[in-house]
Amino acid sequence: MTLREYLDMSGWSQRQFAKELGAGDSIVSRWVKGQRVPSRSNINEISQITKGAVQWSDWNSTST
User: Fold this and answer.
1) Which residues contact 29 (CB under 8 A, 6 or more apart)?
2) Is residue 21 part of a domain?
3) Cα–Cα–Cα angle for 61, 38, 62, nearest 5°?
């Protein structure tokens, strides 16, 4: 599942997710748009926050 799909499904805004993650709004926006891929540590945190719904393998299939 992509981060965009997770946010749509969960009802979280990008801003809420960024705050939960401790990241900037603009970087989360870039991740959602597929313009950037998070660092390994951020992907691990994203996986924890999303309870495994968004995992490392989901980022490997994202085209940039």
Assistant:
1) 14
2) yes
3) 15
DSSP per-residue string spanning 42-63: HHHHHHHHTTTSS-HHHHHT--
- Which residue bears the tokens 């991740």? 31
Phi, psi of 54 (to 5 degrees): -115, 115
Can you give the CATH number for the domain in which 8 is found? Answer: 1.10.260
Q: Which amino acid is at 35?
A: Q
Domain of residue 13: give its range: 3-56
Out of 9-13, 20-24, 56-60, least confident range = 56-60
| Per-residue pLDDT reduced to its tens digit, 14-53 | 999 999 999 999 999 999 998 999 999 999 999 999 999 9
* Residues comprising the chain, all counted: 64
